[in-house]
Amino acid sequence: MKFFLLLVFLFIKVSPLLSADYIDKGFYIIDLKNKVEWLKCTAGQQWSDKEEKCIGDAVKLDQNEIKEANRLLNEQIDGDWRLPNRKELESLVCRECDGVKINTKLFPQTPAQPFWTSKRNWWSPKFFWSVNFFTGHSYGRFVPEKKTFRKVFEGSLILCFKINVKLPQKK
Fold this sequence. Notes:
- The protein is of the alpha+beta class.
- It has three helices and ten strands, in the order αβββββαβαββββ.
- It has one domain: Mannose-Binding Protein A, Chain A, CATH 3.10.100.
- The chain has a five-stranded antiparallel beta sheet. It has a three-stranded antiparallel beta sheet with strand order 7-8-9. A two-stranded antiparallel sheet has the order 4-5.
């Protein structure tokens, strides 16, 4: 009986890490609940099959720079890549996780920082919502701020590729 209770306890404790809502497909994650596909790595990083982790440094861009990066990404890769909305990004928050508030088995090397969403703050339209993976909370932020971001794809991702979008240099 003690062994059974121990197994139940371990299952409950580990279940946030082994969610049935996600399917790991290497460099991307299928999110069954939100019906989207996430890039496993934060923008600026690249998935390494050999090392089974995200390598490189996450980049921080403001909303205008993200629009340009998204335009280039969708030109280079046929699809509808976009910033996630607030609900989608908040669904990745893992309140039980120590350190960074995201499942690092699915989203390794995610910085414990705020990430942009595509949703404007209804209290102040100059602001966009961000989700902070250090605290697990959401905040309205002013547009010129630079933050990390993660891309999401609606539909079915068929091609297996590595993303390397070159942003235009500021003059």
